[in-house]
Design goal:
single chain, 192 residues, alpha+beta, 2 domains, 8 helices, elongated
Length: 192
């Protein structure tokens, strides 16, 4: 599996070992202790005058990466754990599936891959029923299988449009509210 592509470029900060730097994530002064051996070598730092472990030095450049890239890209290119990537994203206020451009791109790529696999697949009637039941249970769609009329809309059905709310009429006719709404709009009938 190829590594997740980066959106931006993130040059390694040029800081000497032992140098004192301000870490944006820790909000305190730290000393550079070493460099990682990740695909993008990054300085590690440890807070001064405070006990604790070391971690990556979060400079302005790394903060930009946290706010732009996906968690998978941060893990691969900067060599951090999923826990660390999640903590950074929470700190930056960009946790979730649609908050950074890199994450949106990954989600779209995964959806496109899944769609290619399932597109055009002939599902059995039983599989369709299972999917419809799950969609109804999760309230993904109002009606998974709306009733179909053999001859479409009749004059009697058209006469009922606009006399009662669309939701009520949809229930009476056994179809979806959007079908009633679109038919009423097509005929130029105002809502009840």
């Amino acid at each position: 599996m190829p590594p997740p592509p980066l959106i931006g470029t993130y040059p390694t900060p040029r800081v000497r070992l032992g140098r004192r730097v301000w870490c944006r994530y820790r909000r305190r002064w730290c000393r550079i202790t070493s460099y990682t051996d990740a695909p993008i070598p990054w300085p590690r730092c440890q807070p001064t005058r405070h006990p604790g472990g070391s971690g990556l030095y979060v400079s302005g450049t790394l903060e930009r990466a946290i706010r732009t890239e996906s968690a998978a890209a941060l893990k691969h290119w900067f060599g951090v754990s999923q826990t660390c990537a999640n903590a950074w994203r929470r700190w930056a206020g960009v946790e979730g599936h649609d908050t950074t451009a890199g994450t949106r791109r990954e989600v779209k790529a995964a959806a496109d891959t899944a769609a290619e696999v399932t597109r055009g697949a002939n599902l059995s009637e039983e599989a369709c029923e299972v999917r419809a039941t799950n969609a109804k249970r999760l309230k993904l769609i109002e009606y998974a299988r709306a009733a179909r009329w053999p001859d479409g809309w009749t004059a009697e059905m058209d006469a009922l449009l606009g006399t009662v709310p669309d939701k009520v009429l949809a229930k009476q006719l056994g179809t979806s509210r959007s079908a009633v709404r679109s038919r009423r709009a097509k005929l130029g009938i105002p809502p009840a």
